Amino acid sequence: MLDYSSLLLAAALSGTCLSITLFAIWCTAPQARFVLTVACGILVLVAHVVLFWHCAKHPSPWLCQIVLALLSLGLLTLCLSAMQYLGVHDYRRAILPTLAAMAVCAGATSLGFDGIGFIVTYATVTALLSLIGVMFWIKGGHDRRILLVVSFLSGVCALSFGLCGAVLLVKGQWVLGVAPDNWAERLNSAVAVACMTGLGALTLSLHHLQAQIELKAETMTDPLTGLMNRRALTAFYGERIFGPFMSVAMFDLDHFKKTNDVFGHPVGDQVLRRFAAVVRKYSRTGVDAFRLGGEEFVLVMSRMTEEKAYDIASKISVAFGTEVVATQLGPLRSTVSGGIGFGGTDGTSLDNVLAEADAALYAAKRAGRNRVVAQNKASKADAPALRSA
Questions:
Q1: Which pLDDT tens digit goes with each residue over 271-282?
Q2: What are the structural domains of the chain?
Q3: Which residues are catalytic?
Q4: Which residues form the GGDEF domain (predicted)?
């Protein structure tokens, strides 16, 4: 049976090895900043455990204050790493209460009420661990199995720290003089070793999961415009059935080859980015934009009537026609032609809707370009053509 000192040293050794591993991972993938934050947090907790062990053998008021401050600081750092991973940027809601609690703890300990200092610190740590668990439970949107385990371990660890504070509170131990040593502290040490080991494995899993998500996003994103690419269109809608409230708009920039020949490819790239910016301006829930390649773009619109879909496509066409790109040869104004295909009541495949949109697009070009033509609505067109390059 391990004694209390052995449990503390085991926790310190486990944390040190885990921290070194995470630092090594961060060195190979510096963009994973949350891994670095976890490593720093665990290293602070290792320092807390070592000093706590020393404080248990050689009690000292100032050493007690450092021990308690390191515990709160270490858990705060882990909480911030969770916020980094989950994209929660309001760090103040964790930092400010923790700093306030650390100030109260330091004040109580300096006055000789180290027991109160421990109770306040345990309450703070319990709140931080609970916040981590709640954030992963609510905010996590990737692999729920991993995130739920993180929530569970955080909850168990929070409970163990809460028990440590509860024991001191029930016994009314406001003044200790030495580091607390009771059944709750021993249980907490064992739980901390287990949770620290589990946290390390889960951090590696989360890092791997995040890397997969980023790689998938890169393979489905057009690097020039930032819109999704053809691969993404097939992945998201290749197997979808297009009903009566779904439509596809195809856009083709007018005379784009001439733009490249006269003004150069860098200007052509700028025109493409400008069109992508216009598309984003009119994006909304149920509207996904893709660049198929070259000067061809696709807009997939869901949960809207044919009239609404045509209205959005027409507004994009008109708005792009007013865009002016400055060049060495003078201002450049480009236009775009569009065609819309609609899903049917019996359901239509992506390929069929794209074919209808493509046919409508060529109808727009034959009609003089700089307009949007909708399948079965060829009488509709936007404003008269603007002069293009």
A1: 999 999 999 988
A2: 4-218 (1.20.1070), 230-376 (3.30.70.270)
A3: 295
A4: 244-377
